[in-house]
Design goal:
The complex is a heterodimer of chains A (about 180) and B (about 475).
Chain A: E1 5-8, E2 14-17, E3 20-22, E4 37-39, E5 45-47, E6 63-67, E7 72-76, E8 82-84, E9 109-112, E10 126-128, E11 135-136, E12 139-140, H1 143-146, E13 154-158, E14 163-167, E15 172-176
Parallel strand pairs in A: 2-9, 3-4, 9-10, 12-13
Antiparallel strand pairs in A: 5-13, 6-7, 7-8, 13-14, 14-15
Chain B: H1 2-9, H2 14-25, E1 46-48, E2 52-53, E3 60-63, E4 69-71, E5 90-92, E6 97-100, E7 104-106, E8 111-114, E9 134-137, E10 143-146, E11 153-156, E12 159-162, E13 168-172, E14 177-180, E15 195-197, E16 205-211, E17 217-225, H3 233-239, E18 242-250, E19 253-255, E20 260-269, E21 275-284, E22 294-299, E23 311-312, E24 319-330, E25 339-351, E26 376-379, E27 402-407, E28 413-414, E29 417-418, E30 431-435, E31 440-445, E32 454-457, E33 460-462
Parallel strand pairs in B: 1-5, 2-6, 5-8, 6-9, 7-10, 8-11, 9-12, 10-13, 11-14, 12-15, 13-16, 19-25, 26-27, 29-30
Antiparallel strand pairs in B: 1-3, 3-4, 16-17, 18-20, 20-23, 21-22, 21-24, 24-25, 30-31, 31-32
The chains are: A mainly beta (about 180), B mainly beta (about 475).
C-alpha cells in the first residue's frame, strides 16, 4: 500500500471497519474470518499512541499505550494498573513526535468491528471491538535486527523466537509464555 | 562430635518423632489434642472387617457406587504403581488386626488406622482387641511402603506395630504420618500402647524411612535400634518439647539484578519463657558473594518479626545460593543443658541476564542511509496530511518502521477483548487477545517444548537467541 492514508479526528469522529489488512502483500484477503486486523509481511510494527498513563485513567483492560513520560510500553490490566512491558530497558532516547499545541478531538475513535457492541464504547483511539475476532500482530523475525529505525512504542510479534517484542525508543524488550 | 551433637539435641517422644519427620519432609502433624476424623467413604474405598493377612481379599470390604459396603474381590493396593496410583482410602477399622507378612509397596489414597478412643493400655502392652485397629509388620525385614502422591498415614488411636526385627514403614517424602489419640504422652517410658509400637523389646532396626519418588531413601529415621539407639526414650519423653525452623525464599528463582526475600519463622512445642537463639546465614553461594550472618535471641513466644527476614537485593551474580536458619533453645537453665535445635535451609537460583528465562534488552537496527516512513496513521490531533511538502518529516511518515502509527494524548489502542479463547474459532499464530475470563493478555503461539500452538499468557521476560 503505497498510498498515504491518514484518518484524522478533525474530520471523522468515529470510523468503523469490520476486517482490516494493512500493507497487504498481494491484495490478499484476510487470513480467516477470525481476524480483526492483520498486516503484511514487511518488517514493520504497530506504533502505539504516545499517551501518559496519568492521562488515560479510564482505559479498559486490554489497552496498549507508549508512555512518553517514563518511556515504557504499558498494558492495562484488569485491576486498573498498568503493566510495564519495557522492563528495565534503557531509556536514553527521547520520545516525541506530537506537536504540543495541536488540539485534540476528544471524540476521535476508530473502531474495527461492530459499532453497536459494548466493546466499541470503551475509551481508545483505535478499538478492536469484535468479541469473536483477534488481531494478528505484525510478524517480524528478530525485530531488533530487521525493523529499521523503529519508532518508539513499536509492538511486534517476533516470529523467529515466538516472543512479543516492544520498543520503548531506546531498546527492545521481549516476552514469552 | 557430630553424632554427639545429634544425640544431645535429639528429643524423643512421639511428638518429637513426628516433629523430626516434619522437619525433614514437610509433614503436617496434629497431636492428640486435635480432633481427627476420617472423611466419609467414597467409591472404591476399602475397610477391614476381620483379622487376617493384608493380601487376603476375604477380610476387606469395598464401598460401591450405591453407597454400601460389599465384599472385596481383591486387596487394597493390589496392582497399583507409581504411574497408576489408586485414589481410594484404606481404613483399618477397630477390632481388626491386619498383618503384613511380606514386603509390599502400594499407591493409593490415605491409610487410616482407627480405634474407639481412648485406648487405655500402657507399654509394654500393645493395644489390641475389639476397640483397636492394628497393623502388624511381621517377619524379619518386612516393609510396608506407601509411596503415592499425597498418600498419608493417619493413626487415630490405632496401632502400627513393628512386630519383627528390621521391619520398615516407608512414606513418600513430603507426605504425612499423623498420630492422634496417642496414649503415651507423659507415660513412663514414653511409649504408651498405641501409635507406632515395637512390642516388648527393641532389638532390631525397626524404622520409619522417607523415600523420594524414585525409591531412593530421603531420610532414614530410626524408631529404635536396640541397645545402640540414638534416643533415650524415657528421659527425653519427660523433657519434651520441640522446635522447628521454618524458612523459604520467594521467589525461589530470579534473574540477575532482581530481588528476593527470605522468610524466617519457627514452630514447635516450646514452653513459654524459653530464650530462642537464631542464626541466619549463607551456607553457600557464588564466589565473591558475601552475606553477614544475622544472629540474635528473643523470648518465646516471639512475634512475626522476632527473627529478621532479610531482603536479598540486587543479586547480580548468577548461581545457586543456599541460606540457612538455625533456631535453638536450652532445655533447662543448667550450664550443661542440651539445646533443642532445628536447622532448615532455603535455596535461591539466580539466572544470568539473557538466559532463557531472563530478560535482555536489544538496541534497535539503525539505517541512517534510508528512511522507512510509516504511511498509515490514526490521529486525534487533527494533522492529517500536514506538512505534505516535507514528506518524511510529516506525521505519520516521521515515525519509521510502522505498518501503522496511532496518535492520541489520552486514548490507547484496545485489542479485541473476548469472553474466552473459545471465542476465536480459527486462531493463527501471532493472534493477540485480552481474555476476559482470566483477565490476561494472551497470544496464540507455539510454546517451547510443546507440539501444538495454543493460547498462552505472555508474562515471562525473555531474551531472543540472536
Amino acid at each position: 500500500m503505497k498510498k498515504i492514508f491518514v484518518i484524522s479526528g478533525t474530520f471523522i469522529s468515529s470510523v468503523l471497519f469490520s476486517q482490516i489488512i494493512i500493507n497487504p502483500d498481494n491484495a490478499n484477503p484476510p487470513t480467516n474470518a477470525s481476524v480483526s486486523l492483520e498486516f503484511g509481511s514487511d518488517a514493520r510494527g504497530i506504533i502505539l499512541p504516545y499517551v501518559e498513563a496519568t492521562s488515560a485513567t479510564n482505559a479498559v483492560a486490554g489497552t496498549f499505550i507508549m508512555d512518553p513520560s517514563d518511556k515504557e510500553v504499558k498494558f492495562r490490566l484488569a485491576d486498573g494498573s498498568w503493566k510495564n512491558l519495557s522492563g528495565s530497558a534503557a531509556t536514553t532516547q527521547s520520545v516525541t513526535s506530537m506537536p504540543s499545541q495541536a488540539p485534540e478531538n476528544s471524540n476521535a475513535k476508530v473502531v474495527i468491528g461492530s459499532a453497536s457492541s459494548v466493546q466499541a464504547q470503551v475509551p481508545g483511539i483505535l478499538v478492536l471491538s469484535e468479541t469473536n475476532k483477534a488481531m494478528i500482530l505484525p510478524k517480524v523475525a528478530s525485530p531488533h535486527i530487521n525493523v529499521k529505525n523503529p519508532a518508539a512504542g513499536m509492538l511486534v510479534y517476533d516470529s523467529a523466537n515466538r516472543m512479543l517484542a516492544v520498543f520503548n525508543g531506546t531498546q527492545w524488550s521481549f516476552w514469552k509464555p | 562430635m557430630k553424632k554427639n551433637m545429634k544425640k544431645n539435641n535429639s528429643i524423643f517422644s512421639y511428638e518429637k518423632l513426628l516433629k523430626r519427620l516434619f522437619l525433614h519432609s514437610l509433614l503436617l502433624f496434629a497431636f492428640s489434642t486435635l480432633a481427627q476424623s476420617v472423611p466419609p467413604p467414597a467409591l472404591g474405598d476399602y475397610r477391614s472387617t476381620a483379622n487376617g493377612n493384608w493380601t487376603n481379599p476375604g477380610i476387606w470390604q469395598i464401598y460401591d457406587a450405591g453407597g454400601t459396603w460389599q465384599m472385596a474381590t481383591g486387596f487394597p493396593g493390589q496392582g497399583t504403581t507409581s504411574a497408576n496410583q489408586a485414589s481410594y482410602k484404606v481404613i483399618i477399622t477397630p477390632g481388626t488386626e491386619i498383618t503384613v507378612s511380606s514386603s509390599a509397596t502400594y499407591y493409593f489414597g490415605s491409610l487410616y488406622v482407627l480405634a474407639n478412643n481412648p485406648v487405655l493400655n500402657s507399654h509394654p502392652t500393645v493395644s489390641s482387641g475389639a476397640n483397636v485397629g492394628r497393623i502388624n509388620l511381621s517377619g524379619n525385614g518386612t516393609s510396608l511402603k506407601l509411596l503415592g502422591t499425597n498418600q498419608n498415614i493417619y493413626i487415630n488411636g490405632g496401632v502400627l506395630q513393628f512386630a519383627s526385627n528390621n521391619t520398615v514403614l516407608g512414606l513418600l517424602t513430603g507426605n504425612s504420618l499423623m498420630i492422634t489419640n496417642f496414649n503415651g504422652i507423659g507415660a513412663t517410658g514414653g511409649l504408651g500402647s498405641n501409635g507406632l509400637q515395637y512390642g516388648n523389646t527393641c532389638t532390631g532396626n525397626q524404622q520409619v524411612i522417607l523415600y523420594y519418588a524414585n525409591g531412593t531413601t530421603a531420610l532414614n529415621y530410626m524408631v529404635c535400634n536396640g541397645s545402640n539407639s540414638d534416643y533415650n526414650f524415657g528421659a527425653i519423653n519427660s523433657n519434651g518439647g520441640s522446635i522447628m525452623a521454618v524458612t523459604s525464599i520467594f521467589p525461589s528463582t530470579i534473574c540477575a539484578g532482581d530481588n528476593a526475600a527470605m522468610f524466617t519463622d519457627y514452630t514447635g512445642m516450646v514452653p513459654n519463657g524459653k530464650v530462642i537463639t537464631y542464626t541466619v546465614k549463607l551456607d553457600s553461594g557464588p564466589a565473591g558473594y558475601t552475606f553477614a550472618p544475622i544472629t540474635g535471641s528473643f523470648t518465646h513466644p516471639g512475634t512475626a518479626g522476632s527473627i529478621p527476614r532479610p531482603s536479598l537485593e540486587n543479586l547480580t551474580q548468577s548461581g545457586n545460593y543456599k541460606f540457612s536458619l538455625a533456631v535453638s533453645y536450652p532445655f533447662d537453665n543448667t550450664a550443661g543443658s542440651y539445646l533443642i535445635t532445628s536447622l532448615e535451609t532455603a535455596s535461591l537460583t539466580v539466572n544470568a541476564a539473557g538466559s532463557s528465562s531472563c530478560a535482555c534488552y536489544k538496541d534497535p537496527a539503525v539505517d541512517l542511509s534510508s528512511k522507512y516512513p510509516t504511511k498509515f496513521g490514526i490521529t486525534s490531533l487533527g494533522r492529517a496530511g500536514e506538512s505534505r511538502g516535507t514528506h518524511n518529516s510529516s506525521w505519520p511518515e516521521q515515525l519509521q518502521g510502522g505498518h501503522i502509527a496511532i496518535e492520541s494524548r489520552t486514548a490507547g489502542f484496545v485489542i479485541n477483548r473476548v469472553a474466552n479463547t473459545n471465542a476465536i474459532l480459527i486462531p493463527v499464530e501471532g493472534m493477540i487477545i485480552f481474555d476476559l475470563s482470566e483477565n490476561n493478555l494472551k497470544i496464540f503461539t507455539l510454546k517451547a517444548g510443546e507440539s501444538t500452538p495454543a493460547w498462552h499468557v505472555f508474562n515471562t521476560p525473555a531474551c531472543p537467541t540472536l
